[in-house]
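Minimal example, chain plus zinc ion.
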Amino acid sequence: AIYRAVGKNPFLNARGNRPTVGQILLMSKEALARRVLSNPRIKIYRCGRSDIRSGQVDRRVLATLEFLAAWGLKPTVTSLKCSHSYYTKSGSVSHHSSGNAVDIAKINNVPILGNQQAGSVTDLTVRRLLTLQGTVRPTQIISLLDMGEPTLAMANHADHIHIGFRPRYGPNAKLGRQARRLLANNQWDKLVARLGSIRNPVVRLKPSKYSIRVKADPHRASDAHAAE
Ligand SMILES: [Zn+2]
Ligand SMILES: [Zn+2]
């Protein structure tokens, strides 16, 4: 439970009423969606706004937009899920299709096109994005700038920065969404945080030294009932 003084909002910082960047990154998807849609520092094309309203955009994408705006890098979003092709140019399923990617064509109203040199808005934005860590770390930051993983320079990204995140549920996306609906926002975020801290068990491919070696019986007529 969150204990707080009456009348005080725990998500506001001590100095005033604007949440800190760290607080923004911890907000629920629904809270982030409301903020992004009403933030005058974030411009989003019309059907992209309905992607957000209908809950189709991942919270990491929403958190990233709020994060940039909070750092004074006001994004113009030209692609979320809606109107983006299902596949990428190379033929794989685009992270846009699952609501896990965003394209930004302008920062502070300055077009990405023609502004990717050192010190440009693109340069500043990509560097800022590289400070996103942990669960909000992008897996793709594509522009003309290569600053090492997870950035990638691609010639067809002269006019936008693509930011993508690994889909959370893989091929069972539908199942994941259903499970999510059963959990309240807070519970879900806590669960995701916990899952992230559990290490996958190591599965041995070779038999362990404690296993007993069984020789095949050369006198058996058939392998059909080997277990009996
Ligand atoms: Zn993209
Ligand atoms: Zn792209």
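The pocket of zinc ion (ligand 2) is lined by residues 103, 142, 157, 160, 162 (CB under 6 Å). The radius of gyration is 23 Å.
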